Amino acid sequence: MVVRLEGKVQGQDIIFKHTQGDDWEAVIPAVSSGIYIVSLNAWDDAGNMAYTSKYIITIDLSALRICLEPYLYWIELLSDKYSSQISCSEYYAELLKGVS
């Protein structure tokens, strides 16, 4: 069971409050209209980070509309010993070791 949910948008922390069941609520930091990446981390009751996910949040203040969509694909390089190649037309990513 998720007991803690935290996230970031534009580098600013988002702290969620558990309301009931699987429902959580949070106040998003003030941002301008635009498209932002939101990262979320969830912890279980044993203190383990149980889940990490990213979403795209689109904010249109002129229309008073917010849209949240899953951010299905991303890559993070954790070491400068690796490089990556991504081909959007073929939907594949290749991790290469030792390429500068």
Describe what you observe in this structure:
There is one protein chain. With 100 residues, the protein is mostly beta strands. It has a domain at 2-70. It is 0% helix and 60% strand. The chain is built from no helices and nine strands. It has strands spanning 2-9, 12-15, 17-20, 23-25, 34-44, 49-60, 65-70, 82-87, 92-97. The termini are far apart. The mean pLDDT is 77.
Structural features:
two-stranded antiparallel ribbon, 100 residues, 60% strand, 9 strands, mainly beta, five-stranded antiparallel sheet, 0% helix
Summarize the structure in short.
The protein is mainly beta.
Give the SSE layout.
Blueprint lengths: L1 E8 L2 E4 L1 E4 L2 E3 L8 E11 L4 E12 L4 E6 L11 E6 L4 E6 L3
Oligomerization status of the protein chains: single chain
What is the helix content?
A: under 10%
Query: What is the C-alpha radius of gyration, as a whole number of Å?
Result: 17 Å
Strand arrangement within the widest β-sheet reads 2-1-5-6-7
Return the average pLDDT rounded to an integer.
77
Poorly predicted residue ranges: none
What is the succession of H and E elements?
EEEEEEEEE
Tally of strands: 9
Biggest sheet descriptor? 5 strands, antiparallel
Coarse structural class: mainly beta
Portion in beta strands: over 45%
Coarse morphology: globular
Q: With helices defined by DSSP (H or I, 4 residues minimum), what is the helix count?
A: 0
Tell me the span between the first and last alpha carbons. Answer: 43 Å
